[in-house]
């Protein structure tokens, strides 16, 4: 079931790339495995998945320990500063940096462990009150301040678009994040690349790819509905 789902999503990613005249290699498909058991991750791996996304540090660490070392782990959820030390060496990219204090903590741990940590700045483009993320207006200022911190590299932007019935409704959100990335790139800030745009989930990843996503985060479409009551 999971293998079929994964291949189905993969085909749709390919189609969206073709439609927007982009290379398939420009888009990384992240299988969001939060709340799902290791066995399901293994099924997705068998179908070709190599990138996995988790939103809780403890869960990411537990899965990291028991699964093969060649996987790529993405921290996509809100990150508390006291958990940073557990995740800097395990996550290949932290998608959810939305404050200077968090960036400073990541930098501090990265220096301590002598590693370079790649991060994205999470932007609350839709200005939903329930969501984390810096506002579009404040993004550049945060990026400038974080860019001078040692041992972190700001690789781009991430957003979580609202839940909508019709994916087209989120097109302006994705377009706005892309525009923000282009605007910031033009400023040529040291240590800031804006090469990564993490946007699009199960309901809207094809539209996100059409608007320039380089990473899509797909959970339900691969692993099925999540049951938080368990
Ligand atoms: C859970 C989650 C996803 C995946 O959502 P689906 O709708 O299940 O694809 C993507 N991004 C973030 C940040 C998430 O927390």
Verbal overview:
- The chain is an alpha/beta fold and 230 residues long.
- It has one domain: Alanine racemase (TIM Barrel, Alpha-Beta Barrel).
- 40% of the residues lie in helices and 18% in strands.
- It has nine helices and eight strands.
- Strands 7-6-5-4-3-2-1-8 form an eight-stranded parallel beta sheet.
- β3, α4 and β4 form a beta-alpha-beta unit.
- The protein is globular, with a radius of gyration of 17 Å.
- The model has no long low-confidence stretch (mean pLDDT 97).
- It binds pyridoxal-5'-phosphate.
- The site of pyridoxal-5'-phosphate has 13 residues, from β8 and α9.
Blueprint of the fold:
Layout (H helix, E strand, L loop, with lengths): L1 H18 L8 E5 L5 H9 L4 E4 L2 H10 L5 E4 L8 H4 L5 E5 L2 H14 L3 E6 L13 H12 L4 E7 L12 H16 L5 E7 L6 H6 L4 E4 L1 H4 L7
Parallel strand pairs: 1-2, 1-8, 2-3, 3-4, 4-5, 5-6, 6-7
The structure holds pyridoxal-5'-phosphate (PLP).
């Amino acid at each position: 079931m999971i293998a079929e789902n994964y291949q189905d999503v993969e085909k749709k990613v390919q189609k969206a790339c073709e439609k927007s005249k982009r290379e398939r290699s420009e888009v990384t498909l992240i299988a969001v495995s939060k709340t799902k058991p290791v066995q399901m991750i293994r099924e997705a791996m068998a179908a070709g998945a190599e990138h996995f996304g988790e939103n809780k540090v403890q869960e990411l660490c537990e899965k990291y320990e028991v699964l093969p070392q060649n996987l790529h782990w993405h921290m996509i959820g809100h990150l508390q500063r006291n958990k940073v030390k557990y995740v800097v060496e395990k996550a290949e990219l932290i998608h959810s940096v939305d404050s200077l204090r968090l960036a400073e903590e990541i930098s501090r741990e990265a220096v301590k462990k002598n590693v370079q940590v790649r991060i994205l700045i999470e932007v609350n483009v839709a200005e939903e009150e329930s969501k984390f993320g810096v506002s579009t207006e404040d993004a550049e200022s945060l990026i400038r301040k974080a860019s001078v911190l040692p041992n972190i590299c700001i690789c781009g932007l991430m957003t979580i678009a609202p839940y909508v019935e019709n994916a087209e409704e989120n097109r302006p959100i994705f377009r706005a994040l892309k525009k923000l990335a282009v605007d910031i790139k033009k400023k040529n800030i040291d240590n800031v690349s804006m090469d990564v745009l993490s946007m699009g989930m199960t309901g809207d990843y094809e539209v996100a790819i059409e608007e320039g996503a380089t990473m899509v985060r797909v959970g339900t479409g691969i692993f099925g509905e999540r049951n938080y009551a368990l």
